[in-house]
Amino acid sequence: MWAGLGQVLVSRRWAVLAGALVSVVLAGGVGRDAAAHLISGGLDDPGSEFVRADRFIQAHFPAGSPNVVLLVTAKHGTVDDVHVTRAGVELTNRLEHELGPAHAISYWSLAAPPLRSVDGRSALILVRIDGDVSDFIDRSEGVAKRYTGDDGVVSVRAGGFALLVSDVAKQLHEDLIRAELIAIPITLVLLFFVYRGVVAAILPVVVGGYAMIGTFLVLRILGEITAVSVFALNLTAAMGLGLGIDYSLFVVSRFREELAKGRTEHEAVVQAVTTAGRTVAISGLTVAASMSALAVFPVPFLRSFAYAGAAVAALAVFGAVVVLPALLAVLGHHVDWGSFRRARWSPESPRWARMAERVMRRPVVTTLAVVAALLLLGAPFLRIRLGLPDARVLPRSASSRQVWDMVGAQFSARETDALSLVAPNVGVPLARSADIDRYAAGLSLRGHVARVDALTGSYIRGRRVVPPGRATSLFASPRATWFRVVPTVPAISPEAQRLVKQIRQDRRVFKVLVTGPSAEVVDAKSMYFARLPIALGLVALTTLILLFLMFQSVLVPIKAMVLNLFSLTASFGALVWIFQWGHLAKPLGFTPTGSLYLAIPVLMFCTAFGVCMDYEIFILSRIKEEYDRTNDNTGSIVAGLVRSSRIVTAAAGVLSMVFLAFASSKVSFLKMLGVGMALAILIDAFVIRIALLPAVMRLAGRANWWAPHWLRRGPPSRRA
User: Fold this and answer.
1) What is the pTM of this model?
2) Are strands 596-597 and 457-460 parallel, antiparallel or unpaired?
3) DSSP helix/strand/coil, 446
4) Phi-psi bin for 449: left (phi > 0), alpha (psi -120 to 50), beta?
């Protein structure tokens, strides 16, 4: 099959290249505006209580939880001065007139002390903008432009959830452009030194660019069919570029190796497709299977990566196995043009031969030393804390981040972290005023609660401090009511999460649905922990099946799974040490929050597992090729390492640089993903595959290639 494909590509090389050129032009033209068709949110489970409660409030009340916060600061004096009060009331009235009654409340309209800063110089206006994520982001940006500024009496700054999401989306777009400008030149330089030639170095970048441009088209199409998060744009672009380069490295290297053996140009292309092309295809299937496991999560953020990741892997494989061989058939020996050494290129290196021989001589010592080092690196993972991102994911220069910091520092209550509790089907709310009063007063007595707003007024420490009035229009509905609970602790803190659980368990007066940032964290954790075993099981099962079909061995797939877990554990431990505990926060330019965004370890596991398995497959394929030829286990391990280690480490170095370029992002969770992926790739290629893999295979001996006869689809390997 593979030899036949190689022959077709040689004979139809010009037609293949013409088709590839046309597809690139079309993909670039249609896919260049992919970001405009992707959603900015998609971080929540549509079936969670958090989302259901928020939708109920939007549907049944004139104003729900605020998603825009205006911070009004007096230029002179306090917010209670006559001229400042007049400006605050006027601003509130203008917002109400534009957005509708009850969509804007303020310190001046409610006379609520918690909406006034501790020093009295600032006050808050809380605004609710209805609609889906895209709608309220667009409208919130308009509100921010019209109402922020300095009029000599007060200065107004805008923040809140809507503007936070907007700032993150804009920052990610800037980060994508910057990462591409960094990654591509560095990659070209690295490939030039790997191949010692200009043309050979350019070819992988061409295929990587083909896969990356195709990625934008895929995302553009998917965005018309289903909800695709804009966050997927950065990672899938990195994967398209990285995998395209990785896979091309192996095909080009095998082609040059076959030329060095004396084969004709066309014979070398066919042999490269037959050997490296087959391996690349299996590797791509492994990556696609790992990414597809993300589809078990009902969160559009992760499902976006499942759809796009599988498509990107397919594009990278197609570029490396179809487009690249056709290009090599045209170039032939000109692939070596621009070399700065006259010596014949070879994938082998005496350095790798000496290292392989040392590992073979001391497999037990090597295994114990490497495993101990990896477990030590992974130890911080035992103390991982998971949460959701807040404004601190942005740099301090972002407007929404600055407002978030000011509100947290200057106000006793955390208005932007408020919980919303909706009690559906309670009958006529005004007829149950006594129950509402008792329930709200009880809520305000709970630990870490600053204030409770309800139909019957506002409550602090069990006492009503603001009587009913304008609150009636906020919390009234024909058959339902809701409560606003403002905490004293950050939304992602354990104390805030315990508060959500306590409220949900207390059904003595009302059975409420709870929404708000802390409820989002609680529901997200519950969903992730419930679906994670399914995703891990799918990744393990598909990987085991693919590796068994390729290598006809029982031990090899199991060993590959275990070794991958070692490298991922070490990289996860590093993420906890760096991002959760805050080491390297200053040089890397982020603000530690004491937790990791819980989607990132899941996303990183599926992505890194598939990518790192590539290197396992590439090395094992060379070892198996030698074993089938010589039937010598130890000799085949050494030969396989010598002939693949140089390319594997080069591929890992290039791919890690691509992810490190994307780690230059100013959004901390994308930075975390970039750093984590780079570490996982480097640890896997330079430690696991070069030292631990051969040591374990040396200890296993001929058991490496054993499988029951009834499981084999072909004749067994030759036996001594």
Assistant:
1) 0.86
2) unpaired
3) coil
4) beta
